[in-house]
Amino acid sequence: MKFSLIDNQPERAPGQQDSAVAPLIDGIGREVTYLRLSVTDRCDLRCSYCMPERMQFLPKKDVLSFEELAVLVDAFIARGIRKLRITGGEPLVRRDVLQLLERLAERRHTSSLQELCLTTNGTRLAQHAADLKRFGVDRINVSLDTLNRETFAELTRRDVFDDVMAGIRAAKAAGLTIKINTVALKGINEAELPDLISWAHGEGFDLSLIEVMPLGEGMTERSKDFLSLQSVREQLAQRWTLDPVPYSSGGPSRYVRIAETGGRLGFISPLSHNFCDTCNRVRVTCTGMLYTCLGHDGGIDLRDAVRSDDGLVRFHALLDEALGQKPARHDFDVARIDTPSTVRTMSHTGG
Ligand code: SAM
Ligand code: SF4
């Protein structure tokens, strides 16, 4: 797909001007300004709620190259994407991801992209934190469900807790803004959530709690793991003063400030509290599949359009088609949590 070298906007075919720059507005009027791009479905951990030990990964030939990903991002920016999150799988296991991040970080100076963020499990952060800071990555989310080494090894099926903690220390030392993401799991990290929150706030990090979602087949029984954040919030409110704050990071977290720790705590509660009315996001996988809802299987394949020289018109037509079909809401339901809402895992779609 070709781009103009002058203004970094897609070259437009006659009559295409409008759709190539029109904002992404879905069928019920929600404007999409946030792209989550999964750059690999591979990972060096095997979190039990995310993927099975013997995971079938996508063939490498199907995965978009560095250049193809950059072209795809540019086309999205031309349609009004202002926030970009690079995710996976584990993005830092992809060999050329640092180059890609460096290239995309430049876009904040040459296009309307305002924010570049990264979600990582932290295992390789110690090697890369300084570069991420140098490129100007705005914020990183580090996923950490426990401060207990044994629980970590059991949950992720890999004994690398020390690497993750070293990564978090390196990221803090490099001056990156860090948020910790913690999936709340019944009977696994339930009892230590207050300790995790106190630790994060003591380090100067925001922390968001996440409800486990029924994504992907063949994982642990979700009903055993599921912990409602409504009940977690009630428990925390007995210990601390939780003051709701209007802060938004542009994602689905709803925040409170804890008076006693001084830190911010987010709740991502797709099951106990649906937040689809304000959804501003779409996701693209490393093979170029566009998903307009995390909780639905229907997707649109952008790869051929990205790979062909004259694919731009088709690309924007596919975007418009996908936006027109963006579901009003996911249909996650605690009562059906053991039945996956999607065949694909979160690691495939991009968290
Ligand atoms: N590997 C990176 C990481 O773990 O941060 C990025 C990808 S991971 C899929 C993104 C986030 O999704 C992580 O915070 C992870 O805990 C979360 N996640 C994975 N599967 C989930 C599920 N079924 N329900 C809720 N969160 C999930
Ligand atoms: Fe890997 Fe992230 Fe999934 Fe854990 S949650 S298995 S780190 S992709």
Question: Could you please describe the fold and organization of this structure?
Answer:
By secondary structure, this protein is of the alpha/beta class. The chain has one domain: Aldolase class I (TIM Barrel, Alpha-Beta Barrel), CATH 3.20.20. The chain contains twelve helices and 14 strands. The strands form two sheets. A twelve-stranded mixed beta sheet has the order 9-10-11-8-7-6-5-4-3-12-13-14. It has a two-stranded antiparallel ribbon with strand order 1-2. A hairpin with a 4-residue loop joins strand 12 and strand 13. It is globular and about 60 Å long.
Structure at a glance:
The chain has 351 residues and is of the alpha/beta class. Helices cover 32% and strands 17% of the residues. Bound molecules: S-adenosylmethionine (SAM) and iron/sulfur cluster (SF4).
Number of helices: 12
Low-confidence stretches: 4-8, 12-17
Shape: globular
User: Biggest sheet, in brief?
Assistant: 12 strands, mixed
How many structural domains in the coordinates? 1
Radius of gyration: 20 Å
Bound ligand species: S-adenosylmethionine, iron/sulfur cluster
Number of strands: 14
List the topology elements.
Blueprint: H1 17-21, E1 24-25, E2 31-32, E3 34-38, H2 66-78, E4 83-87, H3 97-110, E5 115-120, H4 125-135, E6 139-143, H5 149-156, H6 161-174, E7 177-184, H7 193-203, E8 206-211, H8 222-225, H9 229-239, E9 242-244, E10 254-258, E11 264-268, E12 281-284, E13 289-291, E14 300-301, H10 303-307, H11 312-324, H12 346-349
Parallel strand pairs: 3-4, 3-12, 4-5, 5-6, 6-7, 7-8, 8-11
Antiparallel strand pairs: 1-2, 9-10, 10-11, 12-13, 13-14
Helix pairs in contact: 2-3, 3-4, 4-6
Bound molecules: S-adenosylmethionine (SAM) and iron/sulfur cluster (SF4).
